[in-house]
Amino acid sequence: MQQLTHKSDVYSFGVVLLEVLCARPVINVGLPYEEVNLAGWAKSHYQNGTLHEIIDQNLSGEIAPKCFMKFGEVANSCIKEKGSKRPSMDEVVRGLEFALQLQEAAEKAGGIVGEFVLDKQDLSFTMQAEATILVSSHAGLDSEIVLPR
Length: 149
Prior knowledge:
The chain is mainly alpha-helical.
C-alpha cells in the first residue's frame, strides 16, 4: 500500500496543471487507449516535444511559447514516476512564477502570440548565478528575470 506524502501532493498538483493546460478530465474512457489517462498522454507528448499539440485551443495564440515550455516543464516534473524525482512545492511555485514572468515579458515586448511554432533552439534558457536567469529570444533580445526566493 502506498502512503500519501508531500510528493504525492506534488503529483496531484501536476495533474491539475495538465487539466488546466489541456482543458480535459484526468480520465476519459471515450478516447483511444493511449489518450485515456491525461498524465500518461501528456507525459508522452512532452517527451516527444509535441505537448503543444494537445493544449486547449483557447490557449493557443494566448500563451507565450517560452511560458508554455516552462509551464509544461513544471507540470512534467510533478508527474515523475518516483516521488524522489519530483520537485518540492516551493520549486513548483518558483517555476510557475517564472512562467508568469516569461508571459508578462512577452506581452510587454509585444511578441507572443499567434501560431504555436516551437523550435527548441528558440526556447533555450541559460541558467546564471543563483536565481537570475537570462532569457534569450530568437529575435536577439535578451532580458534578465530574477526569481523570487
